[in-house]
């Protein structure tokens, strides 16, 4: 594995992700923001944040697999959520957990969650992009 995840002492110990990733691989992989489209371009989970988060993470997993990587190789995620408020955190984490169960991993690399006004189409509630490192 090219990524080691760390929660340093002196920083909050947040169970949903790690604060730091240490990358030692030789290839950078940048995955474009993934929305809740299935393989046919149909939006999954219209109006359902947890379902859309799940689909976004599954799409990231598909993109990673295509280049011989997995969530174990992800150095950082950036998540954009439409009309974000802290009360949506439970639904967000539910979607991450459901995707993780299907992928057989706990996707917890460092990440940034950004609340935004809108995405590409009105039905999309979330977009997730990833940076990975592979050997």
Radius of gyration, rounded? 14 Å
Number of strands: 6
Q: What is the end-to-end distance?
A: 8 Å
Estimate percent helicity.
10-25%
Strand ordering within the main sheet: 3-6-4-5
* Helical segment count: 2
Strand content: 25-35%
Low-pLDDT windows of residues: none
Biggest beta sheet attributes: 4 strands, mixed
Helix vs. strand class? alpha+beta
Short description:
This protein has 135 residues and is of the alpha+beta class.
Any descriptors?
135 residues; alpha+beta; 4-stranded mixed sheet; two-stranded antiparallel ribbon; globular
Topology:
Elements: E1 3-6, E2 20-23, E3 27-34, H1 49-66, E4 74-82, H2 89-103, E5 111-116, E6 126-134
Parallel strand pairs: 4-5
Antiparallel strand pairs: 1-2, 3-6, 4-6
Helix pairs in contact: 1-2
Written overview of the protein:
With 135 residues, the protein is α+β, with helices and mostly antiparallel strands. It has helices at 49-66, 89-103, and strands spanning 3-6, 20-23, 27-34, 74-82, 111-116, 126-134. Helix 1 (49-66) runs parallel beside helix 2 (89-103). The longest helix has 18 residues, at 49-66.
């Amino acid at each position: 594995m090219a990524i080691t995840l760390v929660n340093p002492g002196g920083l909050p110990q947040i169970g949903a992700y790690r604060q730091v990733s240490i990358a030692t691989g030789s290839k950078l992989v940048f995955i474009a923001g993934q929305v809740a489209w299935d393989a046919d371009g149909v939006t999954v989970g219209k109006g359902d944040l947890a379902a859309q988060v799940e689909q976004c993470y599954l799409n990231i997993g598909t993109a990673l697999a295509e280049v011989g990587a997995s969530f174990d190789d992800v150095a950082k995620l950036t998540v954009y959520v439409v009309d974000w408020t802290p009360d949506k955190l439970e639904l967000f984490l539910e979607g991450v957990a459901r995707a993780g169960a299907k992928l057989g991993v706990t996707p917890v690399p460092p990440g940034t969650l950004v609340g935004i006004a809108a995405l590409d189409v009105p039905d999309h509630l979330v977009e997730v992009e990833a940076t990975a490192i592979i050997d």
